[in-house]
Amino acid sequence: MKISKDxxxxxxxxxxxxxxxxxxERFAGQLGVVLEYIESLExxxxxxxxxxxxxxxxxxxxxxxxxxxxLDRDSALAGAPESEDGFFVVPKIIE
Amino acid sequence: MPDxxxxxxxxxxxxxxxxxxxxxxxxLTESVLNRIREAEPAVDAYITVCRETAxxxxxxxxxxxxxxxxxxxxxxxxxxxxxxxxxxxxxxCASRMLSDFIPxxxxxxxxxxxxxxxxxxxxxxxxxxAMGSSTENSAFKITKNPWNTDRIPGGSSGGSAAAVASDxxxxxxxxxxxxxxxxxxxxxGVVGVKPTYGRVSRYGLVAFAxxxxxxxxxAGNVEDAAILLEAIAGHDPRDxxxxxRPVPAYREALAGDVSGLTIGIPRxxxxxxxxxxxxxxxxxxxxxxxxxxxxxxxxxxxxxxxHAVAAYYLVAPAEASSNLARYDGxxxxxxxxxxxxxxxxxYTETRSKGFGAExxxxxxxxxxxxxxxxxxxxxxxASQVRxxxxxxxxxxxxxxxxxxxxxxxxxxxxxxxxxxxxxxxxLSDIFTLSANMAGVPGLSVPCGFxxxxxxxxxxxxxxxxxxxxxxxxxxxFEQIAGLGAEKxxxxxxx
Lengths: 95, 494
Known about the structure:
The complex is a heterodimer.
Chain A: H1 5-14, H2 21-38, H3 73-77, E1 83-84, E2 87-88
Antiparallel strand pairs in A: 1-2
Helix pairs in contact in A: 1-2
Chain B: H1 11-19, H2 25-43, E1 46-49, H3 51-66, E2 77-81, H4 108-115, E3 119-124, H5 158-165, E4 171-175, H6 182-188, E5 191-194, E6 215-219, H7 222-232, E7 262-266, H8 267-270, H9 277-292, E8 296-300, H10 305-323, H11 343-354, H12 357-370, H13 376-397, E9 402-406, H14 422-427, H15 433-438, E10 442-449, E11 455-462, H16 467-481
Parallel strand pairs in B: 2-3, 2-4, 7-8, 7-9
Antiparallel strand pairs in B: 1-3, 4-6, 5-6, 5-10, 9-11, 10-11
Helix pairs in contact in B: 2-3, 5-6, 10-12, 10-13
């Protein structure tokens, strides 16, 4: 298999995902098939080819350093699952 | 012949009748809302129907029309894909992660539609976070193809295409990262345009793969698509990748014949294994039509076509895994509130419960491709192949004005057929995703039907910023082929 269940579990951890045992088996199989297909790229010689990050070449987009409006605090917090006194609330992170 | 119902009118017909005072936007909007009530149970194109705000916008549009202040879209009922931020309405991305999310701002394209006086009738269904080719990956519902409700409408903008095809709006917006406008337009027998990367602002478009995503129109005919594109295109300082370049009057390109036009047909596309003979036949008949109309049709090569799928399924998931890191259960969206004392555990539970299977698969693939030790072999290699794909298009456009091809290898497939086979699903994007990798514009225009009555689309691809060229070619083809008038034999739900 192109990718083991342990590798899938490791990558899932990096991505902050938990995969249950049934999905682990399924995802390892499916990702393995996709990665095998992707191996076809190895047949292409790309030595010295400059990678493309954006297809339509643009220069840096500069603007004047001027203050403009932004979301007010209430709007920015309106969608938060939990907020208090103008802050986002998260589970305790310091003992 | 009975009068066409109001909901079945094209945008340009409705414009004429609204401006003549023959109909009001409120009447037109009510007609569309009634049509939604009738057809939606069979099609499931919408996640949200914005009944009250639509009628309020229609009243405002009628006032503007009475004051002779109407633009091309004033009072026209439209729908947008549910990943375009709307300040007043939920924007779910068809994900449990955002099922209650109401954005604090409008996307630039929404601001433009609002300023134009358009009426928003609803937000359309899609594959979760635009990841899919069938609209089966929605957390909420599966949209059906109006031509055959046992089949997929295509995806990821399946709701936007199905809503136009079933007359539940006069036009819509979708987004296209690897074919997500063109492929559903093809499967639903409507017109869909993916503009040049940077032509339309992505501000307020929920990001999937930022270097590939582009918003574009879906409509019942080429002229309507041109009207919509003109309304949404243009530079936006809030999207640093949008291009500062004047927007042409696209409708002015819709005149004259195709003599003098050189059309390239990529042999790699027509020789692709799995290309359905009925689709190939419809595309070849389109070539004959263009040739008879005076266009020069030549054989060309896009040598990296088959490597494009592999490269795309590294680049897009890599960007997605990075973009979707923002869903952490803190700032907005879903949180698994059962985890009280562990931040990392809260992130993990939130993301595992909030994302569906395909989104998780692509995050895994992207994280793997970007992870230490694999970056050069995967992401860098794919980005280099992307350069080759881009050069392939440049060389092709040195020889022709337009590239003609199928949109998808087959017509709409049955619901469930590829649901457990991601690679087969990914391969169905083979003809569309190269345009995203190269940043060039492409469109789908109806070119025929299979023997069992499913629409087949023709893809016309142009050079960067040559939307006018492909719209002209599609319009000329539509005038001759005349397939836009066909309507699906949609039966009301039992």
